[in-house]
């Protein structure tokens, strides 16, 4: 087993020889995918990266393997105590013919900070980036044509060693897999309808809200499902202390615009420091907008000229309507906001290298 770890911790299941034969045929012929019908959902690809580390030691060199299921102990730390985190980024074809990543160094940094918060050994930046590049490179045939979608990259770090008491796991796994996904918005960016929650909160001060921890996402599923059943796209979370300041939109960062001043919730440890969030702030400043990180009162947001949310999946999503209690506000006549549209077009153009990358955000996959 890689890294010399005992087999009872975690291992990739051996792939049958006939499966490898099928894979070799597929690699020659290419994936049979209708790129125009591709949705934002999981599709199994060819290869994945996996590495191991014992608590208190260094990460062992990782290796590329055929995509396969994992064998893990029922007592694994990630299963019993949720000791794990993930990252999300995209690889896509660029206008110059290359395959590019967008700010992967920021994902590497955020994963290291998150790992420390969760008591796990941080993955070194070089190892993280090498793993991302190798996984994308060995699955390059799954990268959709430019404009048809992207290859979603999912790095995971989790406690795979068995442990019964509530404590850090004795062993860890770093895993990277990928899946082709279609555009988040079919037919172009469209405004969303949101509802403010007065019942549920995403995170509290002193917790792990600022970490991309796996345990942060399950509690949001029920509130999100409830909102969608009532016709809303997603839910807006308020802070858990004052119940008045906007924190996040589902799993996305929030922005609002008033008199050309762009405001976004400040990072207080309860809000995820999104890579797209940081990019939008830098991009908006370069265009002459005043950008303020502050506590965004929900009443201020309801009086704003425009609101939008940002994240890796959607990039930028314009908000057309927000309901809070008995109050309902519609922005920009229900159309896509001009600031959101401007930033979306500029940012996606940089990501695909259709415009000069003056920020140095894109990285080619060799």
Describe the structure.
- The chain is α+β, with helices and mostly antiparallel strands.
- It has two domains: 2-181, D-amino Acid Aminotransferase, Chain A, domain 1, CATH 3.30.470.10; 192-351, D-amino Acid Aminotransferase, subunit A, domain 2 (D-amino Acid Aminotransferase, Chain A, domain 2, Alpha-Beta Barrel).
- The chain has helices spanning 17-29, 77-81, 104-117, 125-137, 221-229, 275-286, 298-302, 338-351, and strands at residues 10-12, 47-54, 63-66, 70-72, 84-86, 89-93, 99-102, 150-159, 171-181, 192-196, 234-238, 246-249, 252-258, 261-265, 290-294, 306-311, 315-324, 327-330, 362-364.
- The strands form three sheets. Strands 2, 3, 5, 6, 7, 8, 9 and 19 form an eight-stranded antiparallel sheet that branches.
- Helix 3 (104-117) packs across helix 4 (125-137).
Oligomeric state as shown:
single chain
Mean residue pLDDT? 92
**Biggest pleated sheet:** 8 strands, antiparallel
Order of helices and strands: EHEEEHEEEHHEEEHEEEEHEHEEEHE
Number of domain modules: 2
- The shape is globular
Which terms summarize this structure?
single chain; 366 residues; alpha+beta; D-amino Acid Aminotransferase, Chain A, domain 1; D-amino Acid Aminotransferase, Chain A, domain 2; 2 domains; 8-stranded antiparallel beta sheet; 6-stranded mixed barrel; 8 helices; globular
């Amino acid at each position: 087993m890689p890294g010399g770890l005992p087999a009872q911790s975690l291992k990739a299941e051996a792939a049958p020889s006939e499966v490898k034969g099928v894979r070799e045929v597929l690699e020659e012929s290419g994936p049979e995918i209708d790129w125009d019908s591709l949705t934002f959902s999981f599709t199994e690809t060819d290869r994945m990266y996996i590495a191991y580390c014992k608590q208190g030691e260094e990460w062992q060199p990782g290796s590329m393997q055929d995509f396969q299921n994992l064998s893990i102990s029922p007592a694994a730390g990630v299963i019993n105590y949720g000791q794990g985190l993930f990252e999300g980024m995209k690889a896509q074809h660029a206008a110059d013919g290359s395959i590019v990543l967008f700010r992967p160094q920021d994902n590497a940094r955020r994963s290291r900070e998150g790992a420390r918060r969760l008591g796990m050994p941080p993955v070194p930046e070089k190892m993280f980036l090498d793993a991302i590049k190798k996984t994308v490179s060995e699955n390059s045939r799954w990268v959709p044509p430019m404009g048809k979608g992207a290859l979603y990259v999912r790095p995971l770090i989790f406690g795979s060693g068995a442990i019964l008491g509530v404590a850090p796991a004795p062993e860890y796994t770093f895993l990277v897999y990928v899946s082709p996904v279609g555009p988040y918005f079919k037919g172009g960016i469209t405004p969303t309808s949101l509802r403010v929650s007065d019942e549920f909160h995403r995170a509290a001060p002193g917790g792990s809200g600022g970490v991309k921890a796996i345990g942060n996402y399950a509690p949001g599923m029920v509130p999100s499902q409830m909102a969608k059943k009532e016709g809303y796209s997603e839910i807006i979370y308020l802070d858990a202390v004052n119940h008045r300041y906007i924190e996040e939109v589902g799993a996305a960062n929030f922005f609002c615009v008033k008199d050309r001043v762009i405001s976004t919730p400040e990072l207080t440890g309860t809000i995820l420091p999104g890579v797209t969030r940081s990019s939008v702030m830098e991009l908006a400043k370069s265009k002459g907008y005043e950008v303020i990180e502050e506590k965004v009162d929900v009443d201020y947001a309801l009086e704003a000229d425009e609101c939008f949310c940002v994240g890796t999946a959607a990039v930028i999503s314009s908000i057309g309507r927000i309901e809070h209690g008995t109050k309902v506000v519609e922005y920009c006549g229900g159309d896509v906001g001009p600031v959101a549209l401007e930033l979306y077009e500029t940012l996606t153009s940089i990501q695909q290298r259709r415009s000069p990358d003056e920020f140095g955000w894109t990285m080619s996959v060799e």
